Amino acid sequence: MEPPAFHPPSCDEAVISTNDDASYCKRSAVKLGYWKDDFLGYFVRSPERKAPEINRGYFARVKGIEMCIEKFFKKTGDKCQIINLGCGFDTLYWRLREMGHMITNFVELDFPTVTARKCYQIKRNKILLEKIHVEDGEVRLSPTDLHSSNYHIVGVDLRNIDEVALKLQQSEIDFTVPTIFLAECVLVYIESQNCHNLLKWFGSNFKSAVFVNYEQVNMNDRFGEVMLNNLRQRGCSLAGVESCISLDTQISRFLNCSWHGARAWDMVQIYNSIPAPERSRVERIEMLDEAELLTQLFQHYCISVAWIGELFQDIEITVEKRLSSLNID
Ligand SMILES: C[S@@+](CC[C@H](N)C(=O)[O-])C[C@H]1O[C@@H](n2cnc3c(N)ncnc32)[C@H](O)[C@@H]1O
């Protein structure tokens, strides 16, 4: 039996399909041992092996976000909420559970087409299901949404704030609990005005929050132009690209929406902040065909962090100083 089909407008279909690309790339890297993820294989099967630069890029992306989350856990312990925007088939909830974390609440949002597929896999898989904490044994289900006591996944268009507010309410989000928002390659697909409204709504409703955003940067140079053209040729409108021009535009996107502060680092800096033994380990997995290509890729992605309230304002990363920008020789 297949999960129920939902038919989004064709302009959204290309955006939705970016989840398949991301999931296949992550699975390729996991299979080679870049990082451990015992759960991704339940959502994505038999990937083709991706180029070493792609695998290393995805490693930096996943590791960079994980490092941010670890920093926040040091402040909040498990008494926090995570809201994963445009979650795709991300397995963070299960990876955290495996590490022994039981956070107050974890909510995932994506288009109904994507959440229906994710719900379907969760429902039919005992290992995924048993990690979902259920106090009274009850999991509430619809074709696109799943609610348990501390894990929720809901189908919603992030451009529709009323719907987002309703879905967060159904997911028992508490505006007073410290909250980590995650968006991994998501905001770039959302029209600037809609994104502004969404960030503003979050900023004015949550008392203590941090936003971790991974996406493109330096999009107005030649390499950026080629990246954008490739995506556009696949029918993917990059409606929010104007915030991806520089680290400054990434930061000001949040400050213009009344977030209290923001910082941003390109992936060269993030990669160099990963502990040296971990970098050495992954650098031994595969030889890079084109070291320069990886550097360029890293220069065109970034992680920005924004905050509301005081809890998270001292976030910093420690970038190791090196002669070459990347340890890829
Ligand atoms: C590149 S994928 C990334 C998936 C996941 N965050 C990851 O990194 O593995 C982008 C995701 O954002 C979702 N997305 C983009 N625009 C959205 C919107 N307006 N409403 C809901 N989801 C959206 C897509 O459906 C897709 O799953």
From TrEMBL:
Reaction it catalyzes: [phosphatase 2A protein]-C-terminal L-leucine + S-adenosyl-L-methionine = [phosphatase 2A protein]-C-terminal L-leucine methyl ester + S-adenosyl-L-homocysteine
Residues reported in the UniProt entry to bind S-adenosyl-L-methionine: R61, G86, D157, L158, E184
Coiled coil regions, renumbered to chain: none
Superkingdom as given in the UniProt entry: Eukaryota
UniProt GO MF annotations: protein C-terminal leucine carboxyl O-methyltransferase activity
Family annotation (SUPFAM superfamilies): S-adenosyl-L-methionine-dependent methyltransferases (SSF53335)
GO biological process per UniProt: methylation; regulation of signal transduction
Any one GO cellular component localisation term in the record: cytosol
Keywords: Methyltransferase, S-adenosyl-L-methionine, Transferase
InterPro entries the UniProt entry points to: LCMT1, Ppm1/Ppm2/Tcmp, SAM-dependent_MTases_sf
One Pfam family hit: LCM
Enzyme Commission number(s): 2.1.1.233
Protein family (similarity comment): Belongs to the methyltransferase superfamily. LCMT family.
Record's function text: Methylates the carboxyl group of the C-terminal leucine residue of protein phosphatase 2A catalytic subunits to form alpha-leucine ester residues.
Protein name: Leucine carboxyl methyltransferase 1
Designated gene of the protein: 6049915
